[in-house]
Specification:
- By secondary structure, the protein is mostly helical.
- It has 2 domains: about 220 residues, Vanadium-containing Chloroperoxidase, domain 2 (Orthogonal Bundle), CATH 1.10.606; about 240 residues, Orthogonal Bundle (Vanadium-containing Chloroperoxidase, domain 2), CATH 1.10.606.20.
- The protein is about 55% helix and about 0% strand.
- The protein is built from 17 helices and no strands.
- Helix 3 packs across helix 7.
- The longest helix has 29 residues.
Amino acid sequence: MKKIHLLNILFTASLLIISCQEDLPSFNGFESYTYSKEDKNGGEWKTTLIASPNEIAIPVPGEVTSSTYQAELEAAIKANAEATEEQKEAVKYWTNNPGVRWNEIALELIAKYNLIPGPTSEDVYILPDPANPDGPSKFPFAHPPYAVRALAYLSTAQFDGLITAWHYKYLYNRPAASTLTQQMKTLYDAQNIPAYPSEGAVIAASALDVLKVMFPLEADFLTEKYNDAIEALNVSGHYVNSDIQAGVTIGKAIAAKALARASTDGMKSAQTPKPISDSIKQAAIDRFGWYWENLELPTRPVGLTPLYGKVKMWNVPNVIDVRPGPPPSIGTKELDDDIKKLEDIANSMTRERRAIANFWQDGLGTYTPPGHWNKIATDLIVANRLNPLRTARTFAYLNMAMMDGGIACWDAKYYYHYPRPIQLIPGFRTIAGTPNFPSYTSGHSVFSAAGAEILAYVFPEKATTLREWALEAAVSRVYGGIHWSFDATVGTSQGINVANYTLTKAKSDGAE
């Protein structure tokens, strides 16, 4: 109740919470660092996509005294000694926590593809098709539901892959190459973590395979990034070739598990043809007597992913378990009061409110609201010097919770099919673009509340600030004029509720 009370204060008193740009530095240029923890028991943590690390087999490594290993070591010494300036820069870029870099790459691709498919010259919309990614409408349209799904599969694969890597690291305890010879110059901070298999190779291989499916037109770009990442491992001074190849084996195997789940999670049916979309609308009319109408010009014939609410969830047993109660009926005092609230906000728009609306807009051409919370997570990960395993854990739980939140939000949107303010308030003007889907509940509010709860758990010292940012993100949509205040308050509660399912999993995974 405290969170919702604060959100109501924001609506009525114009309080301005300090934005995250003013509180946390940007670590896009971060360098390698010494990890805060090694997590020797990381191989015992609970997985998501596989039952246990033993599902993925890698060869038993040879002894470091063997002729085979010694030959690999000599090759690694040579590669390290002959590293070019370009290769050294690659090592510096990828660092010893490359999961952060692959997350950034994913965000860049999301922003690049977060563009509404345009109509043809005949004002006909052709939906993006994964079987024909070149279009005419290019695949994908990386809208928030698509974006968070891509991030969830990427990070969950990397987390399971690194649990598997940690299992084998401490099973075989093969030391880093740099600890076995004085001829090696390490190119980033050394860690007291076994080298076999290479965690960087797990991360790179899983990222390549997952992201190539999510962004098929970027296969060449992603392959180039992958080769660059593997080459950086080769010259880094920490690994021999068999360390890297074992990591690649794990990465590709866990990516296959992730993609197998993705192929059957229901996303391919989330965007519906018009007859199904119309039937969803009619069901809401029959239940409640109202419906959302798309007022954009030219009008797209179908709202955004009407059946996303039926996509398979990660940690919530059934989407109905987190469906909120109905919004106010049209013509009631509750709705009339909210109409007055929005009109008052619009008629007395302040610079502070406009700044909040713009800061959290995360619209077309950006990495979307879920991506915004991934960026916040990145800054906290680097500031707290998390190792690659804990980095993947943070991203995995963050994105699983936000994907579950998005599914729950879209279920409510199309179940209730509630009109947006511009549909019910004559002459009402917004300061933000009105999205092509129903109003209740607010996606920004659900994504942000779910994301903030996960990050507050991982970084408890920042919990108050993170929750305040989530409230600010929620109220930003009301300030923008595109949501009712109850869209935001109920959406915030919904996001917290959904996140608690993921937190239950996190608190029992063995990492605490």
